[in-house]
Amino acid sequence: MSLEINPDLVRDFDHIWHPCTQHKDHQVTPPILVEKAQGIYLYDREGNRYMDVIASWWVNLFGHNHPRLNMAITRQLEKMSHVMFAGITHQPAIDLADTLVSLTPTGLDKVFFSDNGSTAVEVALKMSLQYWQQQGQPQKTRFAYLKGGYHGETLGALSVCGLEIFRTKFEKVLSDQLPVDGPDCFRCPYGLQRQSCNAECFEPMEKALSENSNTVSGVIIEPLVQGAAGMMMYPPVYLKKLQSTCESLGIHIIFDEIAVAFGRTGSLFVCGEHDLKPTFLCLSKGITSGYLPLSATLTSDEIYSAFYGEHSERNLFIHSHSYSANPLACAVANESLSMLTESNFLESLKPKIAAIKECGRQFDGITGEFRQTGMIAALELVENNKERYSFEKRVGYRIYLEGLKRGLFIRPLGDVVYFIPPLVITEEEIEVMLNTAHVCINAVLK
């Protein structure tokens, strides 16, 4: 496959500023100009095909251009495309809220719609803070978060972000929250294995919450997989301990399942699979299978009741988005959830999960760790003694370029090469994905 620079393509991007992109790189390798997408593949203007192994930033569940999802939008478009969601409601939102409540753990009875993952988190943070104010505990204003955690890039979400690359330049305007050392199973300070430990690494969180319980409003966490940190994976026993501690201390739990819900870990929701009951559940990304922006924050009747009463600024939850519960987005989300929950779809993921595990064995000879949770897999590349490669070596970026040459669209997180393909990927395509990635990595590391 040729990656020669086409001057016309360079001019196409003169006025665009892409996210998380050093544009000087595009002087050498311009972004792929995708003309169409079908299934798990992207096609550029020259007709080259790329396997989308990161599901277009983790959102695509059923492949691109799926006929059922296309039809769901078409049917809704014939009725209405958008209407404000205050003083007005509509059937697609009603149906979606009913379905989400029926599929999530008992007690998550209210659904607040917004339009992206960061705002779903912002909603949960604000609801938690205001709840405690209206319960006569205004001193509970802080949130505990893991130092490797990521929950979005708006200022509120950045305040509970544990990754310096996202927050350092904005530190002076971020609110003061409570960072806590979290699990790092690859470099476990206790010398234990994630498959058999009892989450001894929960000790720092237990200590932080016990010492600050009077001022902590809630804990926010990515369950099982910390995505932007490099797909760091840890066992569910950590979450069990967190729930027990928060319940005993009267602290809210916010589950950010934006990246891991809707089949990514092999189940619909982590909290449902492991019998966990968060106070707030944040959802987005796969909820519309990558078709339209939509997010949801679920919470309990207990939280909702603190805002219910005679109209006043004291108890009203002041938070709104122009595109909240967009009918087109809700319609495609309803169809996506139908597809997830019918015909034993989740059961059909089991042989694919096994195929990822089996094909992942080929990375055993490469220094680092291959790890997997359901349909999410990652290879962390390291030098001597588990040391990360220096930034200047740009190992991940060079692997990305090798992938493009071989028809594989990957976007490593630093030196962590990860795989979150659409759930409809076949076992044969999984083998191609991982075998090709192995070739790319060997080409760079030699």
SSE blueprint and pairings:
Layout: H1 7-12, E1 34-38, E2 41-44, E3 49-52, H2 55-58, H3 67-77, H4 91-103, E4 110-114, H5 117-134, E5 142-146, H6 155-158, H7 164-167, E6 178-180, H8 203-212, E7 216-221, E8 225-226, E9 232-233, H9 237-249, E10 252-256, H10 270-273, E11 280-283, E12 295-299, H11 301-305, H12 327-341, H13 345-359, E13 368-373, E14 376-381, H14 395-405, E15 408-409, E16 416-419, H15 427-445
Parallel strand pairs: 3-15, 5-6, 5-7, 7-10, 10-11
Antiparallel strand pairs: 1-2, 2-3, 4-12, 8-9, 11-12, 13-14, 14-16
Helix pairs in contact: 3-12, 4-12, 8-9, 13-15, 14-15
Textual characterization of the structure:
The structure is a single chain. Strand 13 (about 370-375) and strand 14 form a beta hairpin. The chain contains 15 helices and 16 strands. It is globular and about 65 Å long. It starts with 6 loop residues before the first helix and ends with a helix. The strands form four sheets. The chain has a seven-stranded mixed β-sheet with strand order 4-12-11-10-7-5-6, with helices on both faces. The chain has a four-stranded mixed β-sheet with strand order 1-2-3-15. A three-stranded antiparallel β-sheet has the order 13-14-16, with helices on one face. It folds into two domains: about 5-65 and about 345-445, Aspartate Aminotransferase, domain 1; about 70-340, Type I PLP-dependent aspartate aminotransferase-like (Major domain) (Aspartate Aminotransferase, domain 2, 3-Layer(aba) Sandwich), CATH 3.40.640.10. Helix 3 (about 65-75) packs antiparallel against helix 12 and helix 4 packs parallel to helix 12. The chain is α/β, with parallel strands linked by helices.
